[in-house]
Design a protein that fits this description.
The structure holds two protein chains of two kinds. In chain A, 42% of the residues lie in helices and 12% in strands. By secondary structure, chain A is of the alpha/beta class. The relative contact order of chain A is 0.14. Chain B is α/β, with parallel strands linked by helices. Chain B has a single domain (5-196), classed as 3-Layer(aba) Sandwich (Rossmann fold), CATH 3.40.50.880. In chain B, the strands form three sheets. Chain B has a seven-stranded mixed beta sheet. Chain B has a three-stranded mixed beta sheet with strand order 5-6-9. A two-stranded antiparallel sheet of chain B has the order 7-8. Chain B is globular, with a radius of gyration of 15 Å. The termini of chain B are close together. In chain B, 55% of the residues are buried. Classes of the chains: A alpha/beta, B alpha/beta. Chains A and B meet through strand 1, helix 1, helix 2 and helix 12 of A and helix 1, helix 3 and strand 7 of B. Chain A: It holds the Pfam family SOR_SNZ.
């Protein structure tokens, strides 16, 4: 029991409230229909912005180089992230390792607009992801299936990207995971209320979220696609499969003419259902990045299987 | 009562949310990505999103001039956040090559309320919207630096206009489309009906 105070009760006037689910998820809604590009320098960030990117992902090495260099991949240098924040006016995202909540704290302190808790970096915790409700800065997380997506949302993720096999220039894994997520959502739609409890158990996801997805017919947050997009046609393919936008990593700045390829991927993402426009956007782009066949990747080099 | 046909500029941004809000407010809604789709609409909503991206795509696909012509000819239009920037005659700090449709005699400052960490919600009284304050959702939002004589501030937050009307044009720094409260969209649909009468 608290002792009654002699002061009169104060009802705080509803003032500005930051870090709400609505401003976190709402931020991702603003990115829909757009392309988020990996950049490693302020110059690349400007090229991305000029090409019409809706946001950039600031990182030290694009996934293709992380693959080549090997070793432990960590959060980027704060100086480098700040340089990119200063160079552009569009939102800037940056990656933390899975479960490395101190890297996430640093990214929040730097003022990045979105944190990607990313399997492209070497995981820091083999059991737990970061508690994303602890942060004002919103998080995007990867998922290979619906259960994984809902577990991340339950931890506070405000945006989901289907995982691909980043740094390969091969779209096959992105397609697999997007089809998996959309397919599982479709199946939930067909279940009655009794069946949703068992479905939640099977998906290893909270019942409330499973029920919400069954009612909405979509995730309660924005769903993008990531990993393996190298051409305008790849981007349009992911949109037609149900992605609300795309992340492009190595595909742009590992290609022959980054500025042109970036602008073309933006066009194809907006007009994803218009083959004539996608055809025009696909002309004269020069060399695409050299791809990697995902079947030949050893298990330890597969990023999509990181996270759970 | 007639059902106005309201297009939503669908180059990028929170198009689906505006569709839902406009439908709830009694409009027939369609997506506008091409000049011929614009020609079919009685009025237009410019959604939230990235104003630089929207501007570049509008120019690349030949929409910018038709948009200016329609707005100049009196088509009702409403823009939220990035859409507000698109309807401003002037941006204080434009990116290279960033153009606006214009129409409202005002100067806007992009991302004026700060980055995502400063994005916020606050209740907001809006003139012309009855029934108590609306939930103002501000996401990397712009504010209005100054308005000309013809533009009227409908809402002010922290000393800056965040909702402005000039004739048939309406703009808000915040995102009513994210709240499930359709009163601002109802105000706009009423403006469209008045214009069609």
């Amino acid at each position: 029991m608290s002792t009654p105070s002699s002061e009169s009760p104060v009802t705080p006037a509803p003032g500005p409230e930051t870090g709400t689910a609505r401003v976190k998820r709402g931020m991702a809604e603003q990115l829909k229909g757009g392309v988020i590009m990996d950049v490693v320098t302020p110059e690349q960030a400007k090229i991305a912005e000029d090409a019409g990117a809706v946001a950039v992902m600031a990182l030290e090495r694009v996934p293709a180089d992380i693959r080549q260099h090997g070793g432990v991949a960590r959060m980027s240098d704060p100086d480098m992230i700040e340089g990119i924040i200063e160079a552009v006016s569009i939102p800037v995202m940056a990656k933390s390792r899975i479960g490395h909540f101190v890297e996430a704290q640093i990214l929040q302190a730097l003022g990045v607009d979105y944190i990607d808790e990313s399997e492209v970096l070497t995981p820091a915790d083999e059991v737990n992801h970061s508690d994303k409700f602890d942060f004002t800065t919103p998080f995007v997380c990867g998922a290979t299936n619906l259960g994984e997506a809902l577990r991340r949302i339950a931890e506070g993720a405000a945006m989901i990207r289907s995982k691909g096999e980043a740094g390969t220039g091969n779209i096959v894994e992105a397609v697999r995971h997007m089809r998996q997520i959309k397919g599982e959502i479709g199946k939930l739609r067909a279940l009655d209320n009794h069946e949703l409890y068992a479905a939640a158990k099977e998906l290893r996801a909270p019942y409330e979220l499973v029920k919400e997805v069954a009612e909405l017919g979509k995730l309660p947050v924005v769903l993008f696609s990531a990993g393996g997009v190298a051409t305008p046609a790849d981007a349009a393919l992911m949109r037609q499969l149900g992605a609300e936008g795309v992340f492009v990593g190595s595909g742009i700045f590992k290609s022959g003419d980054p500025a042109k390829r970036a602008a073309s991927i933006v066009k194809a993402t907006t007009f994803y259902d218009d083959p004539k426009i996608i055809a025009d956007a696909s002309r004269g782009l020069g060399e695409a990045m050299v791809g990697i066949n995902c079947d030949t990747l050893p298990e330890g080099e597969r990023y999509a299987s990181r996270g759970w | 009562m007639s059902t106005p046909k309201v297009g939503v500029l669908a180059l990028q941004g929170d198009v689906r949310e505006h569709f839902a809000a406009l439908s709830a407010a009694g409009a027939e809604v369609s997506a506008v990505r091409r000049p011929e789709e614009l020609a079919d609409a009685d009025a237009l909503v410019l959604p939230g999103g990235e104003s630089t991206t929207m501007s570049k795509l509008a120019i690349a696909f030949g929409l910018m001039e038709p948009l200016r012509e329609r707005v100049h000819a009196g088509m009702p239009a409403y823009g939220s956040c990035a859409g507000m920037i698109m309807l401003a005659d002037k941006i204080l700090d434009p990116r290279s090559g960033q153009e606006t449709v214009g129409g409202i005699d005002m100067i806007v400052r992009r991302n004026a309320f700060g980055r995502q960490n400063e994005s916020f919600e606050a209740p907001l009284e809006v003139r012309g919207v009855e029934g108590g304050p609306v939930e103002g959702v501000f996401i990397r939002a712009p504010w209005v630096e100054s308005t000309g004589a013809r533009a009227e501030a409908l809402a002010v937050y922290d000393g800056h206009p965040v909702a402005v009307r000039q004739g048939r044009l309406l703009a808000t720094s915040f995102h009513p489309e994210l709240t499930g409260d359709h009163r601002v969209h109802a105000l706009f649909v009423d403006m469209v009906r008045d214009a069609l009468d």
